[in-house]
Amino acid sequence: MLLAAGIGVLSAMAAFLFLLLREQRVPIVVDIAAQASAGERVRPAAANGSPSTVRTATPNEIDFETFNFSLARARSYRAIGPVRVRLLRTDRSNSYDVAILVKNKRMKRSRMRPGEPIAIAIPGTHPDTRMVVTRIAKNEIWGYLVMPKKGEAGGKR
What we know:
By secondary structure, the chain is α+β, with helices and mostly antiparallel strands. The chain has one domain (2-148). It has 2 helices and 10 strands. The chain has helices at 2-23, 32-37; strands at residues 40-45, 51-55, 64-72, 78-80, 83-90, 96-102, 105-112, 117-119, 130-137, 140-148. The strands form 3 sheets. The chain has a 4-stranded antiparallel β-sheet with strand order 3-10-9-8. The protein has a 4-stranded antiparallel β-sheet with strand order 4-5-6-7, with no helix packed on it. Strands 1-2 form a two-stranded antiparallel sheet. The chain is elongated and about 75 Å long.
């Protein structure tokens, strides 16, 4: 009887530790703005967890604009550069939902995590426009929007 109780307690502790370690994953935040200004394009993380990059252009060929933002949960959209963004909700599991409005077209992204880039298609600009949230708090997010400057090589299509 004591042996069964001991095994039960040990298995409960093991399950608790497994869930605790699983929830403490730290997202890898890739600074797209710094890599973009260095002329590199971000690829998904390698198997060892470090981000890998591939060279696509020199800094003289494409010049990027960065818009930093702090966004609280609200009923109205807020302008961040050429797009309008609205924070719908944040979650205890370190995720958020956001609605993005670009030229009267709305897109919604759910269960996004910090460091995950959101690709935004803005008509008349380069397709490499990205929004990245770096930090999440209760009903507030912080991050940046990166897009090529207009008039630069590769800035218009």
